[in-house]
Amino acid sequence: MSLIKLLEIEKNYPDGLGEFKALKKVSVSIDSGEFIAITGPSGSGKSTLLTILGVLNPPSKGQIYIDDIDVYSLSGDRQADFRQTYIGFVFQDLHLVPYLTALENVLLPLAISLYPGKEQKKMAKEVLNRVGLGDKYHRLPGKLSGGEKSRVAIARAIVNKPRIILADEPTGSLDSGTGNEIMKLFQSLNNEGITVILVTHNNENKKYVKKNFLVRDGLIEVNQKWV
Amino acid sequence: MTKQEEFELLAKKKRSSNFIVILLSLIIGIGGTVIFIAKTGSQIPGTRYSGGTYNIGEDMKYETIIGMTKIISSIQEDNIFSIPLDKIITDKIIYTEYIKDKIRLPLMAYISPSGRVVLTFSFCEPCRSETFRIDGTAKDKTLVCETCNTNWRLSDLKGIYGGCVDYPPEEIPYTVEKGQILVSTKILIEYVPREVLEFIDM
Amino acid sequence: MKIETIALKHLLRSKKQFFILFASIVLSMTLAVLLFVVVDKLKTDAGNSFDEIGANILVVPETSSRDLTYESVTAHNSNNRGVFSSRDYISINTIERRDNIATVAPKILQPVSYQNLDFILAGIYFQFEKEIKKWWRIEGEWPFRENEVLLGYKIAGSLNEKNGDELLISGKSFLVTGILTEQGTEEDEIVYANIMTVQNLFGLEDKISFIEVAAYCTTCPIEEIARQISEKIPDASVIIMAEAVKTRENTIDKFASFSIVFSVVILILGFAIVSLMMITSVNHRTKEIEILRSIGYRKAHIADLILVEGAITGLLGGIAGYLIGMSGAVQTIKAIMPAASNIKWDMIPAVYAILISTLLGVLSGIIPAVKAASMEPIESIKRI
């Protein structure tokens, strides 16, 4: 049963007088529980694909259904609600809010959720414990190491129990040891049934992913193995 | 709850409370209450103190009209204001002022028919008069306001006649020591005239 | 956690930003409160001291002929003609705007003869008269006791009376304690005695010939005060002393809305400055706002976040601004008008100040909030 369906997605960006075609009639389907790496040369459209999947960037043409919902036909507010419910983001430079502690950063998505205050705290602490930061609830991001920051970012992405995690170069700035730990974290989340999609250049991550989307010249090549 | 259900619920979710609206209403609410309390709190009806009980030891028989005598030389100590008792006994009804900084407070002392020394604020709020006289010619010996002609019984300041019967001069507690009437200045400083709410004619 | 919590944490942990915002609100509120209070005080005091000099309202019986006149009021040549009662007199003190009444001075006029001279014996309440005739200069003392009298300049000469002399009127002996210096008006021809003494002497208990009123008109137009007096005493003519009103208009009333206009201008400036600062703050927080948008915050959530910060800062700034502004006003008044009475620390203006300041914070937040809410989430990951 496919979770995400892209139907003839096109994305054009204005480029001088003409248009730059970032994605050309892409149709692809992603099942629930997949672990996908998006790879490809820079400028190939990987970022465009990730933002379209993240309900952040409407395609020029085509439809995308997630859990049978035509996400880009929703209003702006409902798109925000959708992101909140279904998607967890891990950004490249993490984007932790500097004036909030680890715990408060993790609480951010819950502040606008349906969960009551007490429940929110319990959930946030649980995920922080899970990523191994049980003793650093009240640290501000400035006082955390790179790996710890990544863990907070992941905790923030999963606290709302999303169905999809989108990560952009999650190991890009980490040493290989820490990078592997982060990838193992993604793997264990994937084992619980969460669909994980990440953009990566790092060949070391090969061993964790189940599928590879190679983006080249606005087209996607779906491979069962890393290319 | 599935994610689809959660997503649908979010559409129906209303912001349970708007902080700014609550904050502004709180300010208005608390402010209004404070103002209300401040306004109603200042309406002090009737008399607020019970007077002193010193008796000079003999009855006073008033037969004539006696006006006030003004005494200027009242001694003020730190927390005590004092009025010489012998002046009150000779003049029967005296007027004096407590003056400190920006406060000027008119005071009156007289001897009641039974010989009790009565010390009051010398102020009739409805007509703003500060002077009174004793009328010994009336059947009931009375204290009379020189402006509005309101009459109160000398013995207990019960209103008999006039426009300000409900505002008799307010009695002040005092003690007597070495021939001096002593009053705590705290009472004087805190004095606020009674609010005149309604004019009652008798 | 709630959106308000985020706003609060931001204010608490970004001390520099908060301080700048807070300081600008405190500054505008301080200046607004200071100016308003000081100018208002100047205006009220100037107006009040003006109003206290002389009566500006005259309450007289409706009909009058021309026998003996005093301030255009007639003393009728027969007894029992005092038209007002003390009830009327007190009722003036019970009008709705009674706080605007400075002094009410009742008078009874009685024609008398002494040593073949006809003159008016005016029964007045000396305590009030002293207030209302501030320009009167007296040789000797103001009368206090019930049998003491004050003589007009000319009548003192005609009667050949000096301070300490006795005067027999209608069988009652009076003691002269003071002589009024020459006024050049009919006041020079009058003998003044305690009102109640005159009433008792001539069987005019409770009767009053006319009433002079000095009203403060800074906060209430004199016409309104006159109207309220008419309501209480329907059978009286309430005359506004036109000359007094005109002079007042020329001097004091120009002050009138000055304080409000000034404070409003300051608040508008404050609004502009605080808005600008918040916009700068929002620009610094672009990344953060975009992140919030991409993890599911709606535009309204973002706007709320900014507005709540404005409201909290406005509230705190209002309290501080009021306290500082009032202290400043007290000091300023002390410095420029040493004789003036102290400013009252009233609850009502404090509530207004805090409310206005909170509103200022919220309103200043609107433009930045709209700007913040319009940020698109895509911006944050454009570089992917």
Structural notes for this entry:
- The complex is a heterotrimer of chains A (227), B (202) and C (384).
- With 227 residues, chain A is of the alpha/beta class.
- Chain A has helices at residues 46-53, 76-86, 102-107, 117-130, 146-158, 176-191, and strands spanning 2-15, 18-31, 35-39, 61-66, 69-70, 87-90, 164-168, 195-199, 211-216, 219-223.
- Chain A has one domain (2-223): Rossmann fold (3-Layer(aba) Sandwich), CATH 3.40.50.300.
- Helix content of chain A is 30%, strand content 29%.
- In chain A, the strands form 2 sheets. Chain A has a 6-stranded mixed β-sheet, with helices on both faces.
- In chain A, a hairpin with a 2-residue loop joins strand 9 and strand 10.
- The model of chain A has no long low-confidence stretch (mean pLDDT 89).
- Chain B is of the alpha+beta class and 202 residues long.
- Chain B has 2 domains: 3-41; 65-189, Rieske Iron-sulfur Protein, CATH 2.102.10.
- Helix content of chain B is 22%, strand content 28%.
- In chain B, the strands form 3 sheets. A 5-stranded antiparallel β-sheet of chain B has the order 1-8-9-10-11, with no helix packed on it. In chain B, strands 2-5-6-7 form a 4-stranded mixed β-sheet, with helices on one face. In chain B, strands 3-4-13-12 form a 4-stranded antiparallel β-sheet.
- In chain B, a hairpin with a 2-residue loop joins strand 12 (175-177) and strand 13 (180-184).
- The radius of gyration of chain B is 27 Å and the shape is elongated.
- The relative contact order of chain B is 0.17.
- With 384 residues, chain C is α+β, with helices and mostly antiparallel strands.
- Chain C has helices at 3-13, 15-52, 86-92, 126-132, 153-159, 195-201, 222-232, 242-251, 258-284, 286-294, 299-336, 347-373; strands at 57-61, 68-70, 73-75, 84-85, 101-114, 117-124, 138-140, 148-151, 166-169, 172-180, 190-194, 207-208, 210-215, 236-240.
- In chain C, the strands form 3 sheets. In chain C, strands 1, 5, 6, 7, 8, 9, 10, 11, 13 and 14 form a 10-stranded mixed β-sheet that branches. A two-stranded antiparallel ribbon of chain C has the order 2-3. A two-stranded antiparallel sheet of chain C has the order 4-12.
- Chain C starts with a helix and ends in an 11-residue tail after the last helix.
- In chain C, 47% of the residues are buried.
- Residues 64-68 and 76-82 of chain C have low confidence and may be disordered.
- Classes of the chains: A alpha/beta (227), B alpha+beta (202), C alpha+beta (384).
- Chains in contact: A-B, A-C, B-C.
- Chain A binds chain C through residues 46-47, 50-51, 54, 56-57, 76-77, 80-85, 89, 91-92, 95, 97-100, 104, 107-112, 117, 120-121, 140, 156, 160, 168-169, 199, and chain C through 1-3, 5-6, 9-10, 13-14, 287-288, 291-301, 377-378, 380-384.
